[in-house]
Every structure is written in C-alpha cells, then in structure tokens.
C-alpha cells in the first residue's frame, strides 16, 4: 500500500505533475496516520501546506494528442482528465451505476465473449451545478481516456443549417479517437432560440443526434447531459443504456463536499456538519465556490488552517449576492 504511494509520489514528481504529487503526499500522511504515526502525518501535511500553489496543467512541451485539429477543432474540445471518483460526491445509487459502467467498459473483451457489450450510452440529467459535467470528466479520468466535449453553442451559432452535417463528422471521428464523448447541454439551444425556424432546425438536429446515437458502434463512451429532462420525450430515453439523475445535495452530501474540499486545510468533521446547515438548498457548485472563497481568505491571511469563520463569511457573502441559484 505504502509502496504504491511512494511510487506515485516519485512518478508524479518525475512527470512534473504537481497536483498528483500533492495528492500522493496527502495519501502518505493518511497512511501514516492510520498506522498510528500521527506526528509524522502532521509533519507531512505541514510540508504539503507550504508547497507552492498547484497549477493543474502539466508543464513542459507535452503535446496533447487528444486535442482535435482541423475542421472539428472549434466544436470538439479534447483533453486528458485528472478527475477521479474520489473527487465527486454522488448518491449511492449513482455511484454504483457509474462504477458498474466503468467495470463493464474495462472488461469489454470478457463481456463480448458472451455476446454482450458494455453499456456506454449515458444520459445525465438534473439542475445546473450538480455534477453532470464533472461526472463525465471522472469517467474519462478513471478510464484514462480523453474527455471530448462537443460544444453545441459553437455548433449552432456558426453552422446553423449545417449542424447535422457537423454532428455526423463528430460521430465519424469517434471510432478513430477513443474517448468519453460529452454532448453537454445538448438541448440548450432549443430554449435559447425563440423563433420557430430555429426551433425547427433544433428539432431536426436533436433527431439527427438521436439517430447517430443509435447507429454509433464506436465503442467510445457517450454522455449526453441536459438540464431540461422535462423537454425530452420517451424516444430519447429509449436510446440510452443508463440514465443518471443529478440532484441538489442533501445535507449529508454538503458535509461530504465540505470535507472533500476543506479537510486538507484542517476543517474538522464537526465544523463541516455545523456549517452545512447554512447551505441547504444550494447546488454543489455553490458550496464548492464558498469553500474556495474561504480558502482564499485563509491564504490571504497567511494562515494554513481554515477557521469556521472563514467558511461562515464565505457562505454569507454568496447568500448576500444571491448567488445560489434557485431554479
Ligand atoms: N456532485 C458533485 N460533487 C463534487 N463537486 C461538485 C458536484 N457537482 C458540482 N460540483 C462542483 O461544481 C462544479 C460545477 O459542476 P458541473 O459538473 O459543471 O455541474 P453541471 O454540469 O451539472 O451543471 C464542479 O466543477 C465541481 O467543482
Ligand atoms: Mg455542465
């Protein structure tokens, strides 16, 4: 166990991957603490706290082979992802579903020996800021596949009238470039555009999209995400193997998210439990934002430990600006 962490530590250092290095160091601290070496654990955490701020991008002249070139470059954004299951708070059923999809896709060959294939067409739905986009990144990170995000806004604004053609080009690309393909907010344009001609175009595009989803044999994971599940009819649902709802966090999930974000800077479980009461009804994204604001205050104050007050003030400030979306 510890050998694995040490290897990860060395490897991430060798690759200049600061964020993995930091995570490995914190895992080491956790392992020491579990082994009863509380003092060593604290010393390691103190060293991590003094490390310069991480940049999530890797340094050096690494060429990202996932980045699309040519005509698709504007509408298809690709990249490797660092997100893992431990970075997302999910309700148990959703977590089970995603883990199951991951194992099916990892065991593709074994499934195919028996004439079945992994489920890989996923529909994520729910309020904004509740983890749909993040979950797609987690799938990509866990599978070590690039996340290819289809930018529907670019697709529509630039190529109105030719959108179905562009979509077909993307689906043609999928077998050549294995990845997690995220069709994010694929219905958003339906709402944004008012006039009937555009709505007609939109319907044609959604229809074309669904046909392409049906016909796709690429083996890539395909995620369609929508904030407006009520606008979709049964025909849409039928085309997906797995449907995952993303809801606003329960109180327990708010606590979990606060711990995820703030326990490395010393927020206690008790504090998190207390503080969560102030964020009931918020989205995950709002809570994450308050946590980041609190860390900013702590850092500006030249402290290495967060105080309950930092979080209280951050939550109040967001509330005052009426940021938590109440949709
Ligand atoms: N379930 C979650 N667990 C942990 N963090 C979350 C979760 N949902 C949202 N977040 C935080 O909020 C940000 C925005 O969420 P996002 O995945 O873009 O929401 P959506 O796609 O549903 O609108 C994420 O990058 C993450 O920081
Ligand atoms: Mg999103």
Give the biggest sheet.
6 strands, mixed
The average pLDDT value, as a whole number, equals: 85
CATH superfamily of the largest domain: P-loop containing nucleotide triphosphate hydrolases
Helix proportion: 40-55%
What would the principal axes of the Cα set say about the shape?
A: globular
Biggest sheet strand line-up: 1-3-4-5-2-6
CATH architecture of the largest domain: 3-Layer(aba) Sandwich
Would you list the SSEs in sequence order as H and E?
A: HHHEHHEHEHHEHHEHEHHHH
Number of helices: 15
The rounded distance between the terminal residues' Cα atoms is 45 Å
What structural class is derived from the secondary structure elements? Answer: alpha/beta
Q: How many structural domains in the coordinates?
A: 3
* Count of beta strands: 6
Summed up:
With 327 residues, the protein is of the alpha/beta class.
